[in-house]
Sequence to fold (680 residues):
Amino acid sequence: MSLCGPTTALNKLNQHSQVDRSLHQDAQRSFTPQSQSFKSNNVENHQLNLEFQNQQQFQKSFNPIFANAFGKAPVQQQHPVQQQPKASWANDFNMMNHQQHQPHHQSHQYTTNQGWNTEFQSFQTHQQQSAIATPRSFTNLTQLSGLNMTQASIPTTYQSHRLTEHQELHQQDLLNKELESEFMKLEQEFQNASINEHQIPKKVEQQQSQSQQAPIFKRSNSDFANAAMQVVNAMSSQKSSKFQNSKFLSLMNLVSKGEVELNDDETKLIDQEGNEINENEQNKPHLPDPLAGIENGELHTPFQSAKLAGENFGEKYTWDDVYDDYRNDDDAF
Amino acid sequence: MLSFRTKGYNGYGVKYSPFYDNKLAVATSSNYGLVGNGRLYILSINPDGQIVNDVFFDTQDGLFDLAWSEVHENHVATANGDGSIKIFDIGVSQFPILQLKEHRREVFSINWNMNDKSTFVSSSWDGTIKLWTPSRKQSLATFNAVKPHAQNNCVYQTVFSPHNPSMLVSANANSHIQVWDTRSPNPNILDFIGHGGAETLTCDWNKYRPTVIATAGVDKNIKIWDLRMIDGTADFQSPHQNKLGPAPLNQLIGHDFAIRRVVWSPHDGGDLLSCSYDMTSRVWKDQADPRTRGVLNNRFQKNSTSKIFGMHKEFVIGGDYSLWGDPGWVATTGWDEMVYIYDSKRL
Fold:
């Protein structure tokens, strides 16, 4: 396509309409609502259509592999050509020029800022994110319950798509090849483009660096609650007093009910009022103070304090007890 | 029995100093290690039996394990939840003297080399094992214990052999037990599934028998392996591979929940300490006859005895044998914020 000379919007529309889209249209046709008589299905079909159209638009702008790899494609790429207002040839020229630049912007992110390998890794990271993103809390929790770790740590949606090792490897190979060929194409386009690097807005680079710094792993409270629920269930078989009195298990119980959750930046456990759980725990005395209510200076000897403490709890403490404690101290367990 | 409370912090690891007979270090995390800070306690046992806290170091993220340096009596390395390894000098307050950051996820174990005392090893939930020396900020080597993007790729523990400065054993979340030779171009020299698909959480190398290791995990069993008896070529596609996997020398059965730590005694090749989520720690006597093949064909015979320590009120996560004095003294720590030191012979 020549960049020179006047090009009208009409011309462009013409070009666009001449593209062979039979396959594309077939696909679209198959998604037109077929069951008009069933009113209940209409809503779903409408939604499906919308999703499909979005998907089509998305795919048109970029290969889905890259769409997966980088989350959402940049908004500018989703402007269909025909949506441009009637414009002078100059505008049109600008727009086309802009279109030419876009791949460059995009590919600049791939190749100049980062190496091919890094990018591929980031792609894989995103692909596998649901698998890798096993928050510490879940990993810790699942060890103890005798559960298979994957049951608690991996979202069910992902689990249903789990592949065998062989399939996984095969898929990786295919993706590898596809990705490689796409990069070859991009690199060619890249070399043809005559854009100076200085014209690339800094913002893009900033966004890139921000996205690199962004945490990969995001824990969600619902997953946390699910993991806690599994721990509670696994441990519920234990009826011993230790397990009944376990602070950790009671905390897990609260988490599973949603009464305790992680705060937004996932640095604290908070109750429903937003108070930190740990602080509350620490403010509570470990054991009731047996000498509460006794003024300072009132006690002179350890025996006296033991006697007073015993009286406070309705016990009498004698020298025999002291001797017994001393004798049996080592046999306490 | 002696005790110390790590108030507000749940214990993850405890280790005796290799230099002082009365010093211990305890790695702890707040909120059971789920979120929040960590704290490293350095404890001393006074002659009157009191345990006192000499110094503590707060960290931004939870601490999951620690290792005393074998070359410097004041240095302790910690495995941190933020993926870093910090080395503290107990004479230098507040801040670490060295921070090493390469792991991409939580570092879950750290172990100092007892032979070549200049190196230590760390393992992480990012699926890697890294070899370090304190004189370098970069790791000496990285071993990928599992496929980089496998779903379940935590390496829970890696331990140096006390007999060979370049041999490591690692316990992986995917149930694999791996033996590494750090000198080899293909360092993974042995790889087998030890716990029937359940996560292997811990491993240790026997201090007296160079080819014997113990592993334990989510299947509640402690298994003792003789590495010479394992055809560990990591080729699991092979049709000749025994479906049951290799047979252990002995199996120690008794814990009610997953086992978080096994430690062989430094005084007796048959004594083993285990710490479990069933809120007990046990001291085992491995009585398998070394001349038989142990639990051959899965016909398990009772070849062990155990003694139970049940004072902990929450999960018992870390433990260590004392190197010093009368054999059999043990320290354990757990999520009940307690450190107990007791004589395992008197259980």
Remarks:
- Chain B has a mean pLDDT of 90.
- Residues 111 and 121 of chain B are 5 Å apart (CA to CA).
- Residues 2-346 of chain B form a domain with the Methylamine Dehydrogenase; Chain H fold (CATH 2.130.10.10).
